[in-house]
Amino acid sequence: MAIASAVLEHLSIMTGCKVLFITHYPHVALSLSNRFPRDIAISHMAFEYSESMLDGRRMVHFLYQLRDGLAGSFGIECGRLAGLPEELLETAAVRSASLQGQVDERVKANRCVPFRPLTKAVLTHRSRLRKAAGEMIRLQQPEERNTAIETLRSLRQILSSET
Fold it and tell me: What is the dihedral of CA 68, 74, 78, 79, to 10 degrees?
């Protein structure tokens, strides 16, 4: 998951290129699209299908369309199409729900981590940070996009030049 996140951020933010990036990690996609809404969009290939019979054989026709948002998971259904035993698929469905619950709990827990040292530093140096941020905004061209690390380096440089 870390590699997927780093690669997507690098391609879209650092390189600035258009890219089709496929991942099975919805939290990576959601996290990055929330951080960079102008640069990253989440889409999926939705489909509709119709069935017909031809010479006694079932024919399935798919119509695909690119739509906004995350795709649902069809892992269990793909396993069924591959002929996996139903008992195995039921076990997989239970585990999938359990794993999704664990992921949801981790995401929730990570959102609640207190950043007291950072908060204290911000409150202590609020006026210096505000002045430095204003200087950065004044110097930055509208088409420039700084990554978080570039922004922190610039702030550090501005703050160190004040002393």
Answer: 160
Return d(Cα 40, Cα 4) in angstroms, integer: 14
- Sequence ranges of the domains in the chain: 73-113, 126-162
CA distance 12 to 31: 14
Residues near 9 by beta carbon (within 8 Å), at least 6 away in sequence = 32, 36, 147
pLDDT digits (tens, 9 = 90+) for 33-59: 888 888 888 888 888 888 888 888 888
pLDDT tens sequence across 82-128: 999 999 999 998 988 888 888 778 777 766 554 455 555 555 666 67
